[in-house]
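Action item from last meeting closed. Structure (164 res):
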């Protein structure tokens, strides 16, 4: 039987799982890697959840944990990171059907975003989620002014990538 902590976690995760899927889309290149990263993010979120102090929104905290997990697993591709076995956790969440068939413009935009560095990718993803700059700065650990300046620079980079 699920504890109230597990139930609350699963409810929050199901509600905000699109955050993890977007991060997976940015840091993986195929469906299997996407599933593996999503699974690892879920495990890391569960491990960290008892320490979540609700000083920020769950979605902001989730984004930070998911982003750090993706960076840890995929930044150094030569190094093999040990992931946690999924079977060790008895809770399962219902997953939104992830549809990888996107229109050509969206594919071009994602390809351009993938060319950015890790911090810029994270910034763009939060911006596309319509997060306020206060939340973006909190999630990335930078000042609000710095987040705004970086976003303007990233917009210019994306324009140059899309229209060389």
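Sequence:
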């Amino acid at each position: 039987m699920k504890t109230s902590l597990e139930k609350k976690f699963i409810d929050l995760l199901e509600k905000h799982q699109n955050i993890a899927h977007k991060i997976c889309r940015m840091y993986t290149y195929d469906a299997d890697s996407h599933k593996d990263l999503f699974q690892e993010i879920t495990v890391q979120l569960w491990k960290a959840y008892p320490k979540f102090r609700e000083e920020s929104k769950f979605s902001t905290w989730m984004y930070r944990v998911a982003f750090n997990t993706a960076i840890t697993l995929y930044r150094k591709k030569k190094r093999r990171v040990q992931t946690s076995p999924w079977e060790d956790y008895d809770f399962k969440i219902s997953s939104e059907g992830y549809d990888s068939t996107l229109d050509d413009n969206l594919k071009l935009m994602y390809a351009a975003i993938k060319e950015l560095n890790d911090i810029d990718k994270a910034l763009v993803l939060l911006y596309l989620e319509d997060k306020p700059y206060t939340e973006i700065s909190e999630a990335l650990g930078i000042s609000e002014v710095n987040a705004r300046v970086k976003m303007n620079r990233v917009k210019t980079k994306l324009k140059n990538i899309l229209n060389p």
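Note appended to the action item: Residues 98 and 160 are 30 Å apart (CA to CA).
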